[in-house]
Specification:
alpha+beta; single chain; four-stranded mixed sheet; 6 strands
Length: about 120
């Protein structure tokens, strides 16, 4: 595997960590250097990996520092990102039993409500 450099502008230091953003969950995952460079990941040197901050409201998930030395596979980082996505996914809402009243709520799907049709008068 060829040596990769830090993705930060003006930094030419060797990379030791890979940063992946999970935009849907407002999460940044910092793990060991991925085995394959991908355009949506950022390779970071030790100094930039240590000083990494995320935007306000975002969570940073960091693997232990010694994990960088063992060079886990890229699959490990993807598995961690998938686990973060799965944990943040909302549970499906239960469907409400049909109501007898006209115009009453009979079900829900996310933020949408299903109302009973009043039918012809």
């Amino acid at each position: 595997m060829a040596s990769r450099r830090c993705s930060r502008s003006g930094c030419g230091a060797p990379a030791i960590a890979t940063l992946t953003y999970v935009y849907a969950d407002s999460t940044a995952v910092l793990g060991p250097l991925a085995t394959v460079a991908e355009p949506h990941n950022y390779d970071l040197c030790p100094a930039h990996a240590e000083r990494l901050t995320a935007p306000r409201g975002w969570e940073v998930v960091r693997l232990q520092q010694d994990a960088y030395e063992h060079r886990h596979s890229h699959d490990d980082l993807l598995a961690l990102a998938d686990a973060v996505r799965e944990a943040a996914r909302p549970a499906p809402e239960p469907v409400v039993a049909p109501a007898a009243a006209v115009g009453a709520e009979v079900g829900r799907r996310g933020h949408l409500r299903v109302l009973r049709d009043p039918g012809p008068d």
